[in-house]
Design goal:
Helix content is 43%, strand content 12%. The protein has 16 helices and twelve strands. The strands form two sheets. The chain has a nine-stranded mixed beta sheet, sandwiched between helices. It is of the alpha/beta class and 373 residues long. Helix 1 (6-14) packs across helix 5. It is elongated and about 90 Å long.
């Protein structure tokens, strides 16, 4: 058999589908190292593996399966960092049940720059979507790295906003690192490879499965200095991440919402239980960056509300009554009632034209709002 390093031996063993983390730890405890495992005879696995598993493992070790596994990772630009590797993220070493190893494509987060996880509901509201974009953009402009799970909703929205702003994001997957899940986030996956990194503790080829997602949340929170929760229902996967973050001693920030909104219930309860409420990105940044002896970037970002040079007088009036929370045509009309004598048909035509010109946004057919550029 060729000579391999302990790192290469462990990488090979983790790629075998019948050797999970628990079984690998058991084997390491018995043999002392992964190198001793791959150099052991079939009979030495009695009581540790089934007879079929023992035969399969020794047969693979006798062929060039180990080299094939390593070559495949190299061909796909996948790096492998076991817990004992000096390049393994230091922040993960100290969390409960740290991953035995991680697979990485792209770049790991810079340990010397602040990192914030932005997480929340998969089926987020327009308000949650806008807040995810806003906070990701503002944090990115202040050299804060965004950590998230590339999930539908808040996670993916925040990551795409950060990437579009030229920032770094790290996506932690609940499947093999070579699989983009969900498929609709392929753009985020591809952009992360160029501007950031993708991490998984599962070997390449591992398909997504519901049981794999809760454990990956400890990596999201473990890599982060703080957690921002945008929206969460009373019972949600987001709150699993929060509980793990609390066990790891991370700071929790939550976006307040209306008490009648089910998507805000989880955030409001977190604030009740001691999480810091998010008031504005500026307030968050001033408080958070002070921990790193950094100052907030005070350059102004212009929102559509201030880009009035391209708006008619009636359009400026409409913009003045819109914000991040969608309003129906009747609500807009009531707000405008004391400012203009505009008729409802005229208002409807203006709203349609402004939507087509991307000056405002429309959701559910007749609810309108604005968002930052």
């Amino acid at each position: 058999m060729e000579k391999y390093t302990e790192k290469e031996a462990q990488c090979f063993l983790q790629s075998i589908n019948f050797i999970n983390t628990k079984k690998l730890n058991k084997l390491k405890a018995h043999f002392g190292s992964c190198l001793h495992i791959i150099n052991s005879s079939e009979s030495e696995f009695n009581g540790l593996l089934t007879p079929d598993e023992a035969k399969a493992l020794t047969d693979m070790c006798k062929t060039n399966d180990i080299s094939s596994t390593l070559n495949e990772l190299k061909a796909n630009n996948i790096s492998y960092y076991p817990l004992f590797d000096p390049d393994y993220p230091e922040a993960l070493r100290h969390i409960p049940s740290p991953p035995l190893a991680i697979y990485v494509k792209g770049r790991l987060p810079d340990p010397f720059l602040p990192k914030v996880a932005i997480i929340g509901a998969r089926n987020c509201s327009a308000y949650g979507s806008q807040m995810a974009r806003l906070y990701a953009k503002e944090l990115t402009s202040n050299s804060i790295q965004i950590i998230s799970g590339m999930a539908r909703g808040v996670d993916g929205i925040a990551e795409l906003s950060a990437l579009n702003s030229g920032g770094y994001t790290c996506s932690v997957l609940g499947c093999g690192i070579d699989i983009c899940y969900p498929k609709e986030n392929q753009l985020i996956y591809d952009m992360s490879l160029m501007q950031g990194g993708i991490i998984s503790e599962y070997p390449p080829g591992t398909p997504p499965h519901p049981r794999l997602f809760p454990p990956r949340n400890r990596i999201i929170s473990g890599l982060s200095d703080a957690i921002i929760v945008i929206e969460a229902r009373e019972r949600s996967g987001t709150l699993i991440t929060v509980n793990m973050a609390l066990d790891q001693g991370r700071d929790i920030y939550a976006l307040p919402g209306r008490t009648t909104d089910s998507l805000s219930y989880g955030c409001n309860m977190l604030i009740k239980d001691g999480a810091t409420p998010l008031i504005t990105p500026e307030i968050f940044l001033d408080e958070f960056l002070d921990r790193f002896n950094l100052q907030r970037n005070t350059s102004e970002t212009k929102s559509i509300k201030h880009s009035s040079v391209f708006l008619s007088a009636d359009e400026r009036l409409i913009i003045s009554v819109l914000d991040f929370i969608p309003k129906s045509i009747s609500e807009i009309y009531c707000h405008l009632n004391d400012k203009t004598s505009m008729s409802i048909p005229t208002l409807m035509q203006l709203l349609t034209n402004m939507t087509l010109q991307h000056k405002i946004k429309c959701i559910d057919g007749n609810n309108y709002y604005i968002e930052e550029d």
